[in-house]
Fold these 2 entries.
Entry 1:
Amino acid sequence: MAHNKKVICLTPVYNDWESFKILIQKIESLYFLESKTIDIQVIAINDGSSLEFFDDNFTKVPFSIVNLKKNVGHQRAIAIGLQYINDQINNFDYVVVLDSDGEDRPEDIITLLQKAEALNSKKIIFAQRKKRQESLVFKIGYFFYKQFFYFLTKQKINFGNFSCIPAELLKKIIVQENLWNHYSGSIIQSKIPFDKILLDRGKRYAGESKMNFTSLVLHGLSSIAVYFDILSVRILKFTFIGVSICIFSVLVVLYFKFFTDQSVPGWASNLLLIIFNIILQLFLITLIVLLMQLSSRKNIIPPKTDIYKDFID
C-alpha cells in the first residue's frame, strides 16, 4: 500500500467482551506491524448487552463503544454502525466490517485493503470463505441454504459480513432499505459494485456463539426477503407452470372420458376436483404475492441516513 490510510473497523458485540478484547489486541499487533501504512480505529456496536469496563491502558489502538437502547440483532447493529460512521466521523478511507469473535481474522484486513486499492477503491471487497471451521452439520445446512437461496433468487451468496468498504461507497450503502435486514444481500440487490477474495475463516476466540438455530434460520430468511421483487416474479413463473400442468392433467382425463372407449375409473371425478382446488390455491397465492409487491412499489420512501440516532443510548 503506497501511502497511509485511515481504516475504521466496525464490529457488533453482544455479550462477547472477552472475544472483543482479544480482537483489539490482535488488531493492535496488526496496527504496529503496519503503522507506516495504515491508521486503525475500532468502533464496537454494543447490541443491547451488558457493558464491560475496559482499562484504557490495555491497548494503544483507539476504540469507542456505541451503546444501543435494546438488542436489534447482528444485521441491524451493522446498519446502525455504518450510518453512525457516515454521520459522525470525518476523514477516513475505508470501513472494515468484521465480527468480534475471531472468525473474521484481523490479519486478513490488510489483504482486503490491498484488494480494494488494486481496484482503485471502486468496489466493496467481501471475504469469500475457502476453509471453514464450523461443524459438519453446519456445513451441510449452509450448503443447502445456498442452493435454496439460488433456486429462489437466481443469485449466488457465498460470503458474509467481513468486508472492506471504500469511503465513497459508504454513502450509497446507508440509504439501502434492505441493509436493515441483511447487509451482504442488500449489496448484491443494490447493484453496488463489489468483488470477492478467498480467505480462510478463523476460530472463535472465546465462549460460544450467541446464534442459535432459530437465529440462523431467521438470518437466512432475511437474506431471501431482500429479493422480494425477484421472488414474486419467480413465484408467478412457478405458478404458471403448475397451473399448466394441472390444466393438461384435466384435459387428459376429459379426453379419455369423452373421446375414447376406455373406461375412466370412478376416482377421476375426485381427481378433477383436487386439480381444480390446486389451481385455485396457486392463483390465490400468486395474487396475494403480486398485490403485496405492487403495494410496496407504490410507496415512495425517501432515504433516511439518520435512523441510527433513534437506537443509540
Entry 2:
Amino acid sequence: MRLRTVDAFAARPYTGNPAAVVLMDEDGLPDDSRLQAVAAELNLSETAYAHPVPGDPEADWALRWFTPTTEVDMCGHATLATAHVLAEDGLLGEGERVRFRTRSGVLSATREPDGTLTLDFPTARPAPVPVPDGVPQALGADAVAAWDTGTLGMLVLELADEQTLRELTPESAAVAALPTPVVVVTAAAAPSSHAAPGEPGHDFVSRVFAPSQGLPEDPVTGSAHTALAPLWSRRLGRETLTGLQASRRTGYVRTTLRGDRTLLNGQAITVLDAKLRTRL
C-alpha cells in the first residue's frame, strides 16, 4: 500500500502541516479500526484516505480524515495534500477541479496555473460570545474577544497583538477543559512584520490548539481559516488576505471570502513516498 507524506500550506519542505495520504481503489476503505490504527502509527496531525466514487454524480472521490486518536469532520491541510497527490499522479491537471465527498459535504480543490491549489470550503460565520472562564489560565494570556464558529466546532480567541500570540505557552490540560475541543487564537499582523525571503507577507496570525483530539498544537489548520477569513476580511475591508499560522513549523494560507464559501490557497510538497508493509 503506497503512502505519501505531504507538507501542506508549505513554501518549502519541513514547514507547513504534514499529512499522510493513502489513495485506495474504488472498492472503498477497510474498517474504521484499521484506518485509525494506521493514523495512530503515523502520528501526524491527520491521515487522509481517499477512493474514487465513479457512481456519484456530485463527487469524484470519497475522502476521510483521521487524527492519531479520532476521525474529524473537516480538515483543510489534508484535503490540500490529497489534491497535491492526485496532481502528482496525473489525475488532476492544470486548471482542473476535483470534488471530494466528505462528512462535511462535497468539497473541491482546483489546481492553479502557478502550481498552487485552491480549496473551496463553506464559510464559518463567527458569532461573538463571552470569553470563557479559564482562558487566561489555559493560555497564559488574556483574550480581548471570543467567537463561536457553530458547526465548525472551534472557539476563536483574539489576543492583544502578534507578539503575545507568538509567545504563548498554553497548558494543554487547561485548554482541553475549555468548552470546545479546538481553540484558535488570532491577532492582527504586527505593523513591523516583514516576510522572510521567498515568503509572502501576512495580514493576520493564528495558532491552533486541540489537545483533546491528540493535537497539542496543530501546525497549520486550513479549516480554521474558514472562520478567520470572514473575521479579518470584515475588519480589514478586503476579500483576499494572507494568514500566517505561527506554529513552530509555520505556514501560509491565502484566503478569499466569497459569501458562504471561502477559498483557501496554498502550496504543498511531497517529502516521503513509502510502502505500507502490513495490510491496511
